[in-house]
Amino acid sequence: MPDNCTVDSASRLWVATDGNSNKATGRTDGLWAVDTDGDAHAASRLFFRVPVGAELSGPLFAPDDETAFVAVQHPGDGGADWAGHGRPSCYEDPSIRWPDFKDDMPERPSVLAVTKIGGGKIGV
Asked: Sorted alphabetically, which InterPro entries does this protein's record hold (predicted)?
């Protein structure tokens, strides 16, 4: 369920998804890399997974492709009975506490800068 996309300097297509994290698809939402040339033509792979109930939006790469910026919207959304939580998620009793993971903090949307351990271009 593609929602928005970008292309990096190596001509790879990066697709952000929304709507996969429901029980009907069994898939996750996140950022998918799609190689657009070579032997892996049109092969996709999950690069970054968002928390339960969230969608990823606005992927953007730094000009050197060493940092990917992504926005995680409405983590834990939907009020669904997520596996592991055992009951509907709500503000007073959220199914997740992303990105802080602290008992006194609710889940919050966030913008992240994703880099490669040790540096270098993302997706290589």
From this structure: PhoX
Ordered DSSP codes for the chain: -EEEEEE-TT--EEEEE-S-SSTTT----EEEEE--SSTTTT-EEEEEEPPTT-EEEEEEE-TTSSEEEEEEESTTTT----TTT-S---SSS-S--TTT--TT-----EEEEEE-TTS--TT-
Does residue 120 fall inside a structural domain?
no
One digit per residue, the tens of pLDDT, for the chain of length 124 reads 888 999 988 888 999 988 775 556 667 789 999 877 666 566 788 899 988 778 899 999 999 999 999 999 988 776 555 666 677 777 777 778 888 889 888 888 999 999 999 999 987 6
Number of domains in the chain: 1
Residue 59 placed within a domain? yes
